[in-house]
């Protein structure tokens, strides 16, 4: 269905991970506005509602008022200043998160044209694990994978061998 190229590789791995752990009868609150992957989840039979674009650092009311059994946060937590507070306000017992991992050979991402498209956090895997533990979640399964690129150079070569993404399924303890 999807090629092995980015971003389709990421979408393929994430969808396979969801299908492994999540029933299609679950209701999903996907953090962030509607996006290409939330559309893929819907196309594959999942019931998905996205948050409305509110600043989740300051406003977690959607997490409290919506009805859902699962929260997904794909490529969201790196943009938040305070993911701890967001996780404290999650009502569901099931959580799927993916984050870009911090790379030793590249600085954190910051768009030059969009003041909101920045990575405040680029986690190491143990940092996300600790954040989940501190907010009452236990990791059930996880996977790491690379971010290939078609560019030429030293860093693009390193991206073929260095894990860039960390995908986690966690449940409330």
From TrEMBL:
Top-rank taxon: Bacteria
Listed Gene3D superfamilies: Vaccinia Virus protein VP39
InterPro entries linked to this entry: SAM-dependent_MTases_sf
Protein's recorded name: Methyltransferase
Phylogenetic placement of the source organism: Bacteria, Pseudomonadati, Bacteroidota, Flavobacteriia, Flavobacteriales
């Amino acid at each position: 269905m999807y090629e092995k190229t980015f971003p389709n590789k990421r979408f393929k791995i994430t969808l396979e991970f969801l299908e492994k752990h999540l029933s299609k009868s679950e209701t999903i609150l996907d953090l962030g506005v509607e996006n290409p992957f939330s559309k893929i989840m819907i196309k594959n039979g999942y019931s998905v509602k996205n948050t409305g674009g509110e600043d989740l650092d300051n406003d977690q009311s959607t997490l409290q008022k919506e009805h859902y059994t699962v929260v997904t946060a794909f490529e969201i937590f790196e943009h938040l200043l305070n993911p701890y507070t967001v996780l404290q306000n999650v009502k569901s017992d099931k959580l799927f998160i993916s984050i870009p991992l911090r790379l030793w050979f590249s600085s954190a991402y910051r768009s030059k044209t969009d003041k909101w498209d920045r990575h405040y956090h680029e986690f190491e895997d143990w940092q996300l694990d600790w954040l989940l533990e501190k907010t009452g979640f236990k990791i059930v399964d996880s996977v790491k994978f690379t971010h290939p690129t078609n560019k030429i150079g030293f860093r693009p070569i390193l991206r073929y061998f260095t894990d860039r993404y960390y995908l986690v399924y966690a449940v409330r303890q």
